[in-house]
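ok so for the tutorial part 2 we go from a plain amino acid sequence to predicted structure tokens. step 1 is just haveing the sequence, like this:
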Amino acid sequence: MSEVKWTGGTEHWTRKGDVKLFLWNKKAAPGVPHAGTLFFVHGSSMASQPTFDLHVPGRPFSSAMDWFAQQGFDTWTMDNEGYGRSDKHRPINSDISNGADDLEAGTAYVRKATGAKQLLMYGISSGALKAALFAQRNPGVLAKLALDAFVWTGEGSPTLEQRRKKLPEFLAKNRRPADRAFVHSIFNRDHPGTADEATIEAFADAILTLDSSLPTGTYVDMCSKLPVCDPEKIDVPTIILRGEWDGIASMEDLLAFFHKLPNMQKQFSVMRGISHASFQQKNYMMVYQILHAFFTLQDPVYTG
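step 2 — the prediction. this is what the tokens look like for a chain of 304 residues:
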């Protein structure tokens, strides 16, 4: 395994009761107009820094945090309970609801530390579910919400259909093993070839540096408890991003969710040539550009 270092940022810590939560911050580049305070939310199978602050030789801006910091965003991310550097001592499976609780503690810390009245939030996969549930529970905290590799009811999802075969195993324990073969499966299950080998290996190194096992809670929820959020109660400008070959949700499932979102400042973007882990795909810069356009879009002058 290659040595993995995360540099150029600042670590922060907050608490959710007796649980310590790790946060990582990369500030906006000096001299660039402030574009907002952006909070990234990781998924089921990796902590925050491997997902959002990855470094791959020869691949510019593999770190989404670095790219968005260069565009003027104050960037933050956090390890949910049970992941990475955050506490893992409680005998729980760290489900989606618990992850939304983590976001409440983490965003409160960021708002106090930065003075930001509202935050921008991006969540991927189960991180998108946590972000959506957080937005539902905490109206007014977010200025805009981006949901990538999201799923609503799970109907028509080939990935979840296969995952449900292991549901008894996930229900039987709070954690599941993580190894290099598992990381490879993330990129091979939908459409092999969407990510290059160097990026996959660097991603695996970064994940396995922090975790040898991962919580089962988000898998249990996605296999047996969907839907976990109500689109009609998420009244914030929202973008839904779906990879062309992502197997976690059908297009019909996502469009039904999109249709019910009450805030008419909303977008739906299909990302060509992308499967599930969009920031680690060959077309990652396209994803950054889509998000940047949404996060910097001017608020409407006339709303009717």
